[in-house]
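User: Here's a structure from my thesis project, written as structure tokens. My advisor, Dr. K., wants to see whether a designed sequence matches the one we expressed. Can you design one independently, without my sequence as a hint?
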């Protein structure tokens, strides 16, 4: 670089920037107040307790039989969407099998599963709850629970009993809302 082009660059810089005053580090004063000291956080309730509290227990429903078809759609969900869900026309992105779990364990597993799948931006999942044939005289236990809990979750747009090849009335397809984040 020639000396004249270097001088031209310096002149152009000074013209663009204007007068510059050197700042001394020992004279700096902050323009804002320092942050207040951090307060200790209140201990959060255990995650399992938050999960327990977020979903209500299912009501006793003696009318719900092992072979009954489940179906639900939030207001505003199109008929075509529900029809496609019932026909199993959505790709199943993930599956949860609740067989062998107690009611409280199933509730925790279902809530964690639904929230994780929505966070992962999954669209349709299958939940296997079983038909309840082995529940004896009390009838299905998990099926009414799943039916009740899914209706309470904002993440759920719709659900419907699966096709026979996918578990029939012992499983549901669940369509999740798009993740807003």
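Assistant: Designed independently from the structure alone:
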């Amino acid at each position: 670089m020639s000396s004249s082009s270097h001088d031209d660059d310096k002149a152009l810089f000074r013209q663009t920037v204007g007068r510059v005053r050197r700042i001394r580090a020992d004279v700096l004063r902050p323009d804002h107040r320092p942050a207040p000291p951090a307060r200790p956080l209140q201990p959060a309730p255990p995650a399992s307790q938050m999960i327990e509290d977020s979903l209500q227990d299912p009501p006793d429903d003696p009318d719900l039989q092992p072979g009954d078809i489940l179906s639900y759609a939030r207001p505003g969900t199109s008929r075509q969407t529900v029809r496609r869900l019932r026909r199993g026309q959505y790709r199943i992105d993930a599956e949860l099998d609740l067989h062998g779990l107690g009611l409280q364990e199933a509730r925790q597993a279902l809530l964690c599963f639904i929230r994780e799948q929505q966070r992962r931006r999954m669209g349709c999942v299958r939940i296997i709850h079983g038909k309840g044939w082995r529940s004896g005289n009390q009838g299905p236990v998990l099926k009414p629970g799943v039916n009740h809990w899914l209706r309470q979750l904002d993440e759920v747009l719709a659900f419907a009993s699966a096709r026979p090849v996918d578990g029939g009335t012992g499983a549901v397809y669940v369509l999740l809302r798009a993740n807003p984040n």
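When you compare it with your expressed construct, this may help: Residues 47-52+67-176 form a domain with the Ribosomal Protein S8; Chain: A, domain 1 fold (CATH 3.30.1370.110).
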